[in-house]
Amino acid sequence: MRIGNIDGRAVVLTGSTGAQRAVDIAEASGGRFGPDPRGVFEDWSEFAQWATKAEFGPGRAVDADDLGAPIPDPRQIFAIGLNYRDHADEAKLDPPDDLVVFTKFVSSLAEPNATVALPSDTVDYETELVVIVGRELHKATPEEARSSIAGYAVGQDYSERTVQLRGPAPQFSLGKSFPGFAPFGPAVVTGDELADPDALRITARITGPTAEPHGGSWTVQDGTTADLIFSVERILADLSQIVRLYPGDLVFTGTPAGVGAARGIFLRPGDVLESTIEGVGTITNTFVAS
Length: 290
Description:
Elements: E1 2-6, E2 9-14, E3 21-24, H1 25-28, H2 37-42, H3 44-53, E4 60-61, E5 77-81, H4 85-90, E6 100-103, E7 109-110, E8 115-118, E9 123-124, E10 127-133, H5 142-147, E11 149-156, E12 159-160, H6 161-165, H7 172-175, E13 182-189, E14 201-207, E15 217-224, H8 232-240, E16 250-252, H9 260-263, E17 272-277, E18 281-289
Parallel strand pairs: 5-16, 7-13, 8-18
Antiparallel strand pairs: 1-2, 1-13, 2-3, 3-4, 5-6, 9-12, 10-11, 10-16, 11-13, 14-15, 14-17, 17-18
């Protein structure tokens, strides 16, 4: 199942890319669920049971630009740093023994195909698998954490590196929370839609000025979520030992190697970045001067 957001209403998306259709959840359920996108996840267990038996009508045709952030107002957004060994290596840092955690403030959320204004010439990209929490967790085991996952999405953790790294102490959350710095989507995809949720190819491709020396198109990241240092259930379980996770919370799980800072590049006006996770989808962001 694929759950999206159109005009602030929760929808089930059917069909293939380029021929998607949307069924309004509130209308299809007679008002039992929806229309609030986050509300679907707050009642996730009952909604999922209903949805497996529901007969959805044909719905209406959907254009990619119709889709908003699948959950536009999560209570909390967590992000995990240095969660791929190859990314730790390119950052010249030791792989962590414990989670490296920061937040992206809710005001940084954006629709999957957002146009992003660059506040400086030191903005970087990080393609990430986003996990969506489907029930409240606190002091959970990894097994309990795994069963709490509602679904997965593609996310970008854009970073203004100057703000992020300025002293006297780094400002990760501020540097990663400019408007538009957390686009995600195109939908929340449930695990049954994926061949193996723990081994998904994850790529990022730039076209535009930054890619001109590479023939106009440059695949800058190409990894697999099988290389996560901390698995998704370990991330949720470890977070829950300290904080309380709520339905609809988002967890950005880290990025593989190939980020701009390691390559000596940053995003420029006119660039277009396509971020893809196998089976989950693609989000496309265009960059303009602030």
